[in-house]
Design a protein that fits this description.
By secondary structure, the protein is mainly alpha-helical.
Length: about 350
């Protein structure tokens, strides 16, 4: 997928309670911004964050200075994630400080804001989590509860201490839960559940389409913004959580494919894979397989028959989201009888 950096510019926005803006004349070197909805989604996430997150930006009260700083930081953090050596929030923050891309002036609060900003942008670039900042309890790393209080295998913990920022990214992310699981991973420690899991060899598509799941099994579908929550099942509320931005998966796969051809960089998501066999975490090939399975899951659940496609059309996955913030490919994957997956 060819990328024109001029197409990746963020439009003008104002952050609440601040004079800071992200202006249109600057560009971001990230192929993911070729996705029309992604620009809107990133801006919405930035709007939600507290102003203290920008405390370390040079001249953060000046529009032009803040614009340039935010774009430079986004690009530098992406380059740091792509680097072959181990990456951590601490090491990326130290790099930004040493290159004088941020200004801490011996302020502990400003140093925290740099680390929080790195944590936030990694979440936006990978879509594995949305950050959550508690204004009353600074320090540490928190992720947003997107599953109405349910904590599945991907959300074993919603908080990590500040010390966790020294860990390599795969190990750090694992501290929250199994966001990038290896193949055939089973989270339960229950022996009976594990035995049943090991006995299951195949599941036919007819057993898990949306009509069967909703009408016969009583499941509800809830749309989420974080890829790692896809197909998490809350048995107590009978809710199946589904990621609503499939074109992000397509973009990540295309970026990785171009890298294999030496025509581009890997996706940020692939760079969060583990290179160590000792860590129970996906490697890059596993991430590729997971992304493909996510795309196929839309067809299996919603696309395989008329009744399931009808279920999808009634769900309104982008209710209250403007058209330019909607991933139009979701309707292609879920609502069409015939569809050639990219």
């Amino acid at each position: 997928m060819a990328h024109n950096p001029n197409d990746g510019a963020l439009e003008d926005i104002s952050l609440p309670g601040s004079q800071v803006t992200v202006a249109q004349e600057q560009t971001i070197q990230d192929p993911t911004f070729d996705l029309p909805w992604y620009q809107w989604w990133v801006l919405e996430q930035i709007r939600k964050q507290p102003e203290r997150l920008l405390q370390s930006l040079p001249d953060h009260r000046l529009d032009k200075g803040s614009t340039m700083a935010i774009h430079i930081l986004w690009n530098q953090i992406r380059r740091s994630i792509m680097a072959p050596e181990p990456r951590s929030i601490e090491s990326i923050a130290s790099l930004l400080i040493s290159h004088e891309l941020v200004n801490i002036e011996d302020s502990y609060e400003a140093l925290l804001s740099v680390k929080d900003l790195v944590f936030c942008i990694i979440g936006l670039q990978t879509m594995l989590y949305q950050p959550y900042f508690d204004l009353n309890v600074p320090g540490g790393y928190r992720i947003l509860d997107e599953m109405s209080g349910y904590h599945g295998s991907t959300r074993m913990s919603m908080y990590q201490s500040s010390d966790s920022g020294i860990r390599d990214l795969p190990e750090f992310l694992l501290g929250f839960g199994m966001m990038l699981p290896p193949p055939n991973y089973f989270a339960s420690d229950n022996d009976d559940d594990r035995q049943l899991f090991n006995q299951i060899k195949t599941i036919t598509p007819n057993d898990i389409d949306a009509h069967v799941l909703s009408r016969l099994c009583g499941l509800k579908f809830q749309w989420v913004d974080s890829l790692s929550c896809h197909l998490e099942l809350d048995k107590h509320s009978s809710t199946l959580f589904i990621y609503r931005y499939p074109s992000f998966c397509v973009s990540s796969l295309q970026q990785h494919k171009l890298h294999d051809r030496r025509e581009g960089q890997k996706s940020a998501l692939h760079r969060c894979a583990s290179e160590r066999n000792t860590l129970p975490w996906a490697n890059e090939d596993d991430v590729t397989g997971m992304l493909r399975e996510i795309l196929l899951s839309y067809r299996v659940i919603f696309g395989q028959n008329k009744r399931s496609r009808s279920v999808f059309r009634k769900l309104r996955p982008f209710a209250s989201i403007p058209n330019h913030g909607q991933d139009q490919s979701l309707a292609e994957f879920c609502g069409k009888k015939r569809f050639n997956c990219p």
